[in-house]
Specification:
Distance between the termini: 26 Å
Largest sheet: 6 strands, antiparallel
CATH class of the largest domain: Mainly Beta
Strand content: 35-45%
Number of strands: 10
Structural class: mainly beta
Order of helices and strands: EEEEEEEEEE
Number of helices: 0
Strand order of the largest sheet: 6-3-2-1-7-8
CATH architecture of the largest domain: Roll
CATH topology of the largest domain: SH3 type barrels
Radius of gyration: 17 Å
């Protein structure tokens, strides 16, 4: 029996995605982290924010202003298919008894 409270996203960590909305519209990057509970993803090089960081001499961290990636809503990103190199929606199919993600444009399997 499936858990009704379990949340899932159409993107996974490591997927190549394109940002479809916001200030970074059109940027392509890999998903560093997905946060299904908040329906958010962190994309490399997108949604950069400046954060003030305190110095920590014990850990060797210098203080100052640091640029870090902030989470984006998962609805604002689209998976880029590795075979056809186009942004695409995801379709789920069952192959060999496993549920896999498939590109809607070319039909290639995204999960390897």
């Amino acid at each position: 029996m499936k858990d009704k409270n379990k949340k899932s996203l159409h993107v996974k960590t490591g997927d190549r995605v394109i940002v479809t909305a916001g200030k970074d519209k059109g940027k392509i990057g890999n998903v560093k982290k997905s946060i299904p509970s908040d329906k958010k993803v962190i994309v490399e090089g997108a949604n950069m924010v400046t954060k003030a960081q305190k110095p920590n001499p014990m850990a060797g961290i210098q203080g100052g202003l640091v640029k870090v990636e902030a989470p984006l809503d998962s609805s604002n990103v689209m998976v880029v298919c590795p075979s056809c190199e186009k942004p695409t929606k995801i379709k789920h199919e069952i192959k060999d008894g496993k549920k896999v993600r498939v590109c809607k444009k070319c039909g290639e399997q995204l999960d390897v």
